[in-house]
Amino acid sequence: MSTPDNRSVNFFSLFRRGQHYSKTWPLEKRLAPVFVENRVIKMTRYAIRFMLGRRKKEFATYELIGMEAKTVRNLFLAENSIIGTGAFLLGSLVGTGLSGLLNQVVKNIFEVPHTYQVSFSLQAWAVTFLFFALMYGFGMLRAAKIIRHQKVIDLLYDNRKNEEYHFKSFRHSLLVVLLSIAAMVAGVILLGRMLQTQTNEAFLYLGGACLLILVGVYELHRQIPLLLHRFAKQNLRHKYKEENLFFLGQIGRRIHSAGRTMAVVAILLTISLATMFVGLTMGAGYKANMKAYYPYDAGVAIDAPLEKSSMDSIVSFTEEHCEVEDSVIYYLYAVPKKPIEALSLSDYNHLREILGLSPVSMSNNEFLVHCDTWNYMDGIGQGLKQQPELTFNGWTLTVAETPILTEPMEQYQMAGTKGYVLVLPDEAASQLVGEKIRLALKLKDGGYPELKSDLKQFLNSGKWQPELQSGQQLPEKVTMGVTVKAWGVANSLTGFTAISFCGLYLSIIFIILSCSVLAFEQLSAIDKNQKNYAVIDRLGVPSHRQASLIRRELSTVFLIPLLFPLLLTVLLIAGAQFFFGEAILQQGLVPLYGLVTILLFCAIYLTYFGATMFLFKRVILRPEMR
Q1: Which of 104, 112, 10 is nearest to 494 (CA)?
Q2: CA 434/CA 430 separation, integer angstroms
Q3: Are 349 and 360 in contact (CB under 8 A)?
Q4: Residue 434 near residue 333, CB atoms below 8 Å
Q5: What is the mean pLDDT of residues 235-259?
Q6: Tens digits of per-residue pLDDT, 335-378?
Q7: Are 163 and 256 in contact (CB under 8 A)?
Q8: Residues 6 or more apart from 463 whose CB is under 8 A from it?
Q9: Burial status of residue 617 (CB atoms within 10 A of its CB: 0-12, 13-18, 19 or more)
Q10: 293-312 burial string, b = 16+ CB within 10 Å, else e?
Q11: Does residue 1 surpass a pLDDT of 50?
């Protein structure tokens, strides 16, 4: 007899490595220093530059009254060292608490028993402090160099200098846009090639695809806002309508001064949406498929017409290793001239009892179909409408009132071998030949992972002596499979938890980083905006118009980096559904969690937008105008 492993889909088989999930949970201790600190360099530079910009005039005043530049520099370094130390300690405290929360979220996704637990890793904390000290130190040294070498007059009037813009021709921008779109299309093509490649070349395709797509996103977000701004300024009727001239000036200044920042933010948002989608979909797909792959604690499937008594010794062997609460031995019957197998109603209801499902009743002249594979249901439903009667061996059966049932019963090995099975009355099923025999077991506490190897060893040791049904012959090739739920959980969970944790962790990091950069970019130019809005206030622009301008301005700045990341996420969801939809044994799961990803992301993004709007209005507008 051949004993192949359980059926598997590529969606799952990539991650089965024979390790227990309990060894994988300290991921946050290894990932936190690496991911966080590699992504906050720019954020640290923004913060220091912001504080320096707000205090340049103050430092110039100190030097004018006789304080040495060296003393001013040391004062700035001391103040910011205290602020940085406090921020690091507070961040460490909050991060440690959130790591336990994220750990809980991932465990909850995979339905692993857990309790909230805060774990502190001294090694991770030390590495994090080292990275923080290097980044913050370099940022402060750069700021100190500016204080020491910049002239007093430059410190006084730095925020009044005109910004220098480097305009590029329309043809150049349009050419870059077309090349960027071509790069993104090429990246999508490489992704398709990657999915069709079974060798290590797939990693090269994946790397090339990601590089081309991210470069395309960056350049599109650099050029398209410039082109749109140029077109808007050429429309004179719109340009000089109400306060549009002021609005276009504000947006133009932001596009030119912070265009690269918004392009980088667009890349980070793309990565964030993609990793969140992968993390959530992996967890949901794992749960859906595990329910369909392993509904029974243990099962033995033998494609041969054996006597039911042959399976009793397997039950006895299992009882020697763990307590068996219930078991059922049943046949998959061959239906004459029909490409489908059948179960008797009594065996079917016994399986439902093991799974905790309510029994099904039907009359002796009815039949139904059980199908837990969603992509077959439409075809089966249409077939039953076209042919509502089933005739064999002198029996004529009609379809039951509820023709199709869909609870997970593992229908590629245990309750069928093609993803579906007929359920017939016992008397009708007894007229058929039981070509395949099955054993489903319900074990106390779910059994243990090594039971699978123990059962396979017993079946191949010679101690098990099966008997053929009278009048039946052994097929040329006998397929035998053993399933143990505890083994499936232990060996499938490792890869999925790692990918899901990394995806959710990265998405949170990139969302926070992206939104913080955008918020800092708006607040760092608060002095210039105060002056600009003070001008239109003196010109008589009403308060509600000023508030409307602020909403339009910040909405545009926050919307620009979001356009292509959302579009690429929709394409990613559609591609995942096309390539992996059938591998996930729950209909509509990929689009559902794609929608959850977008809604969750938008909720976080809008929270940052609202906070930035609140601070911006509070600083720019007079108290009675807020």
Answers
A1: 112
A2: 9
A3: yes
A4: yes
A5: 79
A6: 888 888 999 999 999 999 999 999 999 998 999 999 988 888 88
A7: yes
A8: 313
A9: middle
A10: bbbbbbbbbbbbbbbeebbe
A11: no
